C-alpha cells in the first residue's frame, strides 16, 4: 500500500466531485476455475485499489458524500480460518492504513443500503464480475439485466478524471512494471531460436513476472502468426525465418501494468522483406511518439502513424495514391486494423471497465464507428500525467485481404497484386509505454532493442 | 480430444442412468480479471469435457434422455472475429469429433428450454460460476438464490458414478500429469537453497506446467510455513535449516490433474528433529498405501494413517496413551487436522463441485462433523478405477496448540510440554497419486525421492 494520506486525498477529491449520495465500491472476490475452491490468482478491482489500497477479497467500501462517512464492510478471519490460513494481518489494521476507522461486519451492508436508498442516491460503477452483478441486483432490488445499465455516470466520470492523471507514486510503480516487462522481452529475444516452442517462451515470460512477486498484466501473445491480433495459441514450434511477435507485460505486486511488443527474427536475421516492413513500422512508431504532448489529440497521433505507415507501404509498392486521401478513406486499415494505443495504469487498458466513451473520448469527440478507428481506444486530447502505449503495426491477414480484394475495396490505394505476395508474411508490432510530461513525453523504463540491428543482436547473443 | 466413440459411449451410459428429462451442460465462459476482456486462462468445465471434450467457451450441451436428441448450442465465429482470432476450427467440426451433428445457434437455447420445461424435467448440475447461475435463473425462471438448491440429484449421482471409475485413456492422461508433476517437484528440490525466494520456485513450477502445454492443476503451495494448510503466500526467502513444503501439480493440455507434495530441507540436510517427524509422516504414508484395494473404505485408510502417526508421535514423546483410544478421541488431529486424500481426475479434487456427500460418501456412510474427519473428502469403499491421493502430514499450528492447551483438551493423550517446544517446527506433508487396481493399487508415474536420504540427495545435487 501507499501511505495513508494518498488514499485519503483521493477519496476526498472524489467525494467533492460527486454531488450527493452514497458511493459503493465492491472489492473483487476469489473466482473458481473448475470448482469454487480451486481459484484463479486473486485480482483486486483496480478502482477499489485506487481508493482503498486493500488487496483482499470480499469486502465493500462505502463513502457517504453527504455526511463524509467512510466505511469498510467485511469480516475478520475466524479462529478456524486462522488455523487453515495462518495469522494474517487483520482487516481493521489494513483499513487503518487506508485511513478508515469504521469497519463493520459484512452482514450489515445489505440493511445499510436498504435504509440509505430511501433517501440517497446509490452510485456504483458498471460491474464486470457476475457475482458483483448478483450482489447489486439483490442489494438494490434491480433485475439482473438492468444492473449495468443503472451504473452511475457521474461516478464513472469522476473516477476517470482522477485515475487518468498518474501521480508520482504511481509513475514509480509503472516504471517498475516496465522494467520487468523489459526483462521479459529481452528474454524472449534470447529464446527466439529454431526448435523452441512458443509455449516455452510464454511460460518463461510468466515465470519472470511471477518471480518478481507480481503477475502478467494480461495473457501474453507469443506467436509466429503475428497477423492474428488476438492470438493466445502457443502451440507452434519456431523455425528459421519465422517472425516471432511478442506482446506481453508484467503487473507489479501493487498491480500496476506494463505492456510492450517486439517482433523478432527467429534465429537472429531478418529477411530483406521482413526488414523492410519492420522499418515501416519502426518509422510509424517514431512518428507517433514525436508529437506526444499535452493538448495533442491522440486521434491525431493515430492518423499521423497511419500516414507514416501508408508512406512506407507506398515506397514498398503495396499502396499507392495520395497518402492523406488514402488515410482518410481508411485504406491503411487493410494493414493496420487496430488502434495506435491506449491508457495504461492499474489496468493494462486502463479503466476499460468504465467505458471507452468516458476514458478515451469526450462528449464532443465521440469514437468513430469506421473499421480501424472503431478499435482506437483513446482519441481525446492528452494531458500531463496520462500514461499511454504507442503500438503501431502491420498485419497481413489473409481473410481480410481476400475479402477486400474480392470487393475491389479501395483499389485506387492498394496494389492487390503485390499485397497478394505478402499473404504468408505474418505481422509486426512495436509497442512502448510513455507518460505525458509538461512539454512532451517520457519513455517509461529503459529503451530496449528496437531497431533492426539492435533486435538482431539480442536474438543472436 | 479422445476418439469420438469415447464421448458417445459416455453419453449413452449417462442417458440410460437418468430416468427421463433434459440434461443441460453449460460450458464455462471466459472470466475477466480486472475488466471483461482481460481474461484469466480459460478453464472448461470438467463435466462438459468428460461428455463432449470440446475445449471452447460459451456453448451449451443438451441431451434429451426421452428422445435421444443430442444438441450443442453455440455460434460459429463471424468473419470479423476470424480477422481478430484467426481461422480456427469450426464449432461444427469440433462437435463432429464429439459425435454430435445437431449444432444450433446459441439464441435458440432459451426458447428450446422454455418449450421443453412444459413437459419434461430439466436436469442441471450445481453451478459454481456466477454467470451460469444467472443463465439458469433466466432460462428456468428461478430466483437466483434457488438455482443451486434445485440442481438435479439424479444427474449428480449418475455423473459421479461414471467419472469416479477412470477409463484406460484417462489413466494415460493422469500418468502424463503426474510425470510433469514429478518434474516440478524435482526442480523444487534442486532450487531449495538458502537465499532463494519462495516466489521464484513457485514461478518456476508454473513455468514447467505451462511449457508442457498445460497449466497448474491448482495454485501451488510453496512455503517454509508448511503448518499453514492453505498457504499461498510466497513472500519469504529460504534460509538454511528451513523446511520447504511444496504441494503442487500439473494439469495436462486435456485437463487431467496431478497433485503431489514433498517436504525438503533447505540446503540439503534435515535436522535430527526434522528427520524424526519426517519419518513419522513417511511411515503413516506407507501404512495408508498398503491397504489400498477395492472394497476397503478410504475412511479406514485414513484411520490407519492416523494410528501410525499417533504411534510415531508417542515414540517421540509428543503423544501418550492407547493409540486406538487416542485416534477415536481425535487426539491426532492436533497434528493432522485434515484428510488423508481425495479423488483426482479432471479436477484435482475430482468432482468437488458436485458435492462431497455424493463423491466421497454414500447414503449409508455420511461424512462426520468432527474436527479432522469433517475435512476428509473421501470416506467410502474404494473401487477398481478410482484415482486417489494419499497425503498424510504433521502440522504444528501454534494457534491450535495454544487453544487446545488452554482447554487442557485431550491431555490424557498429548504431552503439551513437549508439543510446546515444536511450535516453531512448521509442517511436513507427503503426497502421491494412485489408481485402484483389481487387487490393490498402482502408483501413477515414477516414484521420485521420498525418503530422508533420497530427498536430501535431490536437494544437494
Ligand atoms: Mn497494448
Ligand atoms: Mn491433494
Automatic annotation (TrEMBL), chains A, B:
An annotated Gene Ontology molecular function: aminopeptidase activity
Chemical reaction(s) catalysed: Release of any N-terminal amino acid, including proline, that is linked to proline, even from a dipeptide or tripeptide
EC identifiers of the protein: 3.4.11.9
Transmembrane stretches, start-end: none
Residues annotated as domain Aminopeptidase P N-terminal: 2-133
One family name in Pfam for this protein: AMP_N
Cofactor: Mn(2+)
Keywords recorded for this protein, A-Z: Aminopeptidase, Hydrolase, Manganese, Metal-binding, Protease
InterPro entries named among the record's database cross-references: Aminopep_P_N (IPR007865), Creatin/AminoP/Spt16_N (IPR029149), Creatinase/aminopeptidase-like (IPR036005), Pept_M24 (IPR000994), X-Pro_dipept-like (IPR052433)
Protein family per UniProt: Belongs to the peptidase M24B family.
Protein's UniProt name: Xaa-Pro aminopeptidase
Organism: Algivirga pacifica
Amino acid at each position: 500500500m501507499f501511505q495513508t494520506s494518498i488514499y485519503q486525498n483521493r477519496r476526498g477529491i472524489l467525494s467533492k466531485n460527486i454531488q450527493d449520495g452514497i458511493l459503493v465500491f465492491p472489492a473483487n472476490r476469489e473466482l473458481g476455475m473448475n470448482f469454487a475452491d480451486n481459484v484463479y490468482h486473486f485480482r483486486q478491482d483496480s478502482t477499489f485499489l485506487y481508493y482503498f489500497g486493500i488487496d483482499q477479497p470480499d469486502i465493500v467500501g462505502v463513502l457517504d458524500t453527504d455526511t463524509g462517512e467512510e466505511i469498510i464492510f467485511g469480516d475478520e478471519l475466524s479462529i478456524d480460518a486462522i488455523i487453515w490460513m495462518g495469522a494474517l494481518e487483520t482487516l481493521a489494521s489494513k483499513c487503518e492504513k487506508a485511513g478508515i476507522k469504521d469497519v463493520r461486519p459484512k452482514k450489515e451492508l445489505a440493511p445499510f443500503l436498504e435504509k440509505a436508498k430511501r433517501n440517497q442516491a446509490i452510485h456504483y460503477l458498471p460491474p464486470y464480475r457476475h457475482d458483483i452483478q448478483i450482489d447489486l441486483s439483490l442489494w438494490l432490488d434491480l433485475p439482473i439485466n438492468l444492473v449495468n445499465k443503472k451504473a452511475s455516470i457521474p461516478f464513472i466520470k469522476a473516477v476517470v478524471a482522477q485515475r487518468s492523471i498518474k501521480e508520482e507514486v504511481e509513475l514509480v510503480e509503472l516504471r517498475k512494471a516496465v522494467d520487468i516487462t523489459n526483462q521479459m522481452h529481452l528474454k524472449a529475444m534470447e529464446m527466439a531460436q529454431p526448435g523452441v516452442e512458443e509455449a516455452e517462451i510464454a511460460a518463461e515470460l510468466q515465470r519472470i513476472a511471477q518471480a518478481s512477486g507480481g503477475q502478467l498484466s494480461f495473457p501474453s501473445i507469443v506467436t509466429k502468426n503475428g497477423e492474428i491480433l488476438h492470438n493466445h495459441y502457443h502451440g507452434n514450434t519456431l523455425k528459421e525465418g519465422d517472425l516471432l511477435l511478442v506482446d506481453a507485460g508484467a503487473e507489479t505486486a501493487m498491480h500496476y501494468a506494463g505492456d510492450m511488443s517486439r517482433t523478432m527474427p527467429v534465429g537472429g536475421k531478418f529477411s530483406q522483406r521482413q526488414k523492410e516492413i519492420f522499418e515501416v513500422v519502426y518509422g510509424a512508431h517514431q512518428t507517433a511518439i514525436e508529437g506526444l504532448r499535452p493538448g495533442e489529440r491522440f486521434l491525431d497521433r493515430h492518423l499521423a502513424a497511419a500516414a507514416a505507415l501508408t508512406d512506407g507501404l507506398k515506397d514498398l509498392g503495396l499502396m499507392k495514391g495520395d497518402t492523406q486521401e488514402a488515410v482518410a478513406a481508411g485504406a491503411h486499415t487493410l494493414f493496420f486494423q487496430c488502434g495506435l494505443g491506449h491508457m495504461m495504469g492499474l489496468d493494462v487498458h486502463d479503466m476499460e471497465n468504465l467505458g471507452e466513451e468516458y476514458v478515451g473520448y469526450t462528449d464532443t469527440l465521440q469514437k468513430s464507428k469506421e473499421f480501424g478507428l472503431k478499435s482506437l481506444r483513446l482519441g481525446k486530447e492528452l494531458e500531463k500525467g496520462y500514461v499511454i502505449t504507442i503500438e503501431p503495426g502491420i498485419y497481413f491477414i489473409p481473410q481480410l485481404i481476400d475479402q477486400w480484394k474480392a470487393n475491389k475495396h479501395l483499389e485506387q490505394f492498394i496494389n492487390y497484386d503485390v499485397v497478394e505476395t505478402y499473404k504468408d508474411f505474418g505481422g509486426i508490432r512495436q509497442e512502448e509505454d510513455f507518460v505525458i510530461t509538461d512539454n512532451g513525453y517520457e519513455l517509461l523504463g529503459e529503451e530496449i532493442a528496437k531497431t533492426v540491428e539492435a533486435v538482431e543482436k539480442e536474438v543472436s547473443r
